[in-house]
Design a protein that fits this description.
homodimer; Quinone Oxidoreductase, Chain A, domain 1; globular
Chain lengths: ~325, ~325
């Protein structure tokens, strides 16, 4: 708090199509002062995630949109630097929807204390936070894996995809990932142990699935939607389970993309397509964190982070993530 | 067997788009003679159902296509007129995939004896047969109804839809049907007790759903697909359950219809879309039949049949069903 300045990133415009840096305002303001019962948190790490694109639209989704001129929404982890709360002490590490800002005020109801024994501080908003828990519950609960199942996961090197694929391996499944570059392909196969991967920018996804999934697809964990998903749907087995986690290929289209209707596949294949939000599993988060932390310690679960320093770089880094340019869980390091 | 002639209807051509009568051949042949272990069945009633359209395509679906020159596939009920089987006696009423023909041979493995105490003979291939069981299990198991749920069912006066809507009422749900004529609309509301219905040919389905489902839609039992389904999807509640039973609006298109991708709705609304085939519930069929027969006897469950006499009229009647011209469960009476 040496310079007594709070850096904040506000939503300037509602983008049509891909966001531009000019859709954000970087603003300096004074550091807020906690009132009775409140704490002041200095943000150390900010998580950038695809869902934030939806909050930039003027459309009620599962959560309210960010208002123009309001701080961008985002999960972050930081330390309590002032406390007027009986529950939090200076130095406590806390995580929550603190937003794209260097300092945040909280009354304590929207944050949690982070257990640093489970992993490095930034894992609390990464593999042991929302993205990791999304992978854990979305895969284990929605996809109901059985050893031997063939699993396809899209955006396989991303924050969620990399965790889904490794948990699928732990569960005894065959795992094929789709990725957007050859370096991501090598990473998921050589470092994470996927059985195969497909570069959707270079390969015909349908043909590549025929080669890598000769016995069809039992589980599809979808982060992208679009033509990758169409190719998977044409190859599902009877009783397939499709988890609709994200549709990043669609988030930045000014108009909805048209595609052939193919819902008859679900009937023919007696299959289920289910969307979920990780908040559904809130009461089980600690179980998930502890189990994943165990796998990390045993070496069964790895994670790759894409770290950019400086809050002022958050807009550019966010746009890069939407473009598929980042490689791993996207994080901004503030301190 | 007075005239010793077997009338059979064969597939002549694989239709592109809507089938024409010329896609079928009406053929006279001699009545087949059962071998040791076999029985000869005289068909009394033939069921005509939308799934048969799929079997006319040269495409492996969940079942093999009908070959050109082969008898059209179809559920039928009839009486044993000759028996060389120790299990079946002359006069037994049996039901199975006997095909579009006046006489069929069976070795007994693909048929079942019909219990006439449960209802009139033709109900064994209607409300107490495949269509009724499809409604019963597809609604109760896939849609998991809770009293007070708002349920939308498409093709609501059809063989499956009329049963779904009434079971939903029995379960304490609010039920809205979509239909293709005002007489069907009156029928489902005034005779079957639906809370409301929408004539998709005359009304804007979205606006009509806004009026009839002011609190959104919890369950959608889909028999049609297409724009009706799009309008429903835009209005589902969190935790909605969508049963994909049929997509009749799509079966007769020479090319797939294109539509805006909308799978993000499943994520936002934490909802499930599941396709099923009634065969999944085979081991529970008798339970379903007995329960529905009880509701029929108590007057809680009604059914409407659309009956045409004479096997030679099956092709025309089948095309009428695909066109939405028939009103109720389509049956052909042979004897």
């Amino acid at each position: 708090m040496s310079d007594e300045i709070n850096l904040r990133i506000l939503l300037a415009n509602r983008p049509s199509g891909f966001p531009k840096e000019s859709d954000f305002i970087i603003e300096e303001s004074s550091i807020p002062i906690p009132e009775e019962g409140e704490i002041l948190i200095q943000t150390e790490w900010l998580s950038l995630d695809p869902y934030m694109r939806g909050r930039m639209n003027d459309q009620k989704s599962y959560a309210d949109p960010v208002a123009i001129g309001e701080v961008m929404v985002g999960g972050a982890v930081g330390r309590v630097v002032r406390s007027r709360s009986p529950i939090y002490e200076i130095g406590d590490v806390v995580e929550g929807r603190l937003g794209w800002q260097a300092y945040a005020i909280s009354n304590g109801s929207d944050i949690r204390k982070v257990n640093l024994d489970l992993g490095p501080i930034q894992t609390s908003i990464g593999i042991l936070g929302m993205p990791g828990l999304t992978a854990y519950f979305g895969f284990l609960d929605v996809c109901e894996p059985i050893p031997g199942d063939t699993v396809v996961v899209s955006a396989a090197s991303g924050a969620v995809g990399q965790v889904v694929g490794q948990i699928a391996k732990i569960m005894g499944c065959r795992v094929i990932g789709t990725v957007g570059s050859d370096s991501k392909l090598s990473f998921v196969v050589d470092e994470l142990g996927f059985d195969a991967a497909i570069n959707y920018k270079k390969q015909d996804v349908g043909n590549a699935l025929d080669v890598t999934c000769p016995n069809g697809i039992d589980i599809y964990f979808d982060n992208v939607g679009g033509f990758v998903t169409d190719a998977v749907m044409d190859r599902i087995n009877t009783g397939a389970r499709i988890s609709v986690c994200g549709q990043i290929s669609q988030y930045n289209l000014p108009e909805p993309e048209f595609a052939p209707r193919n819902m008859s596949i679900l009937t023919r294949k007696q299959s289920k397509m289910e969307g979920f939000l990780v908040t559904k599993y809130q009461s089980l988060f600690d179980d998930g964190r502890i189990r994943m932390a165990g796998w990390i310690k045993s070496g069964e679960l790895k994670y790759r982070e894409y770290v950019v320093e400086g809050l002022e770089n958050a807009p550019r880094t966010f746009i890069g993530m939407l473009n598929g340019e980042n490689f791993g869980k996207t994080l901004v390091k503030l301190v």
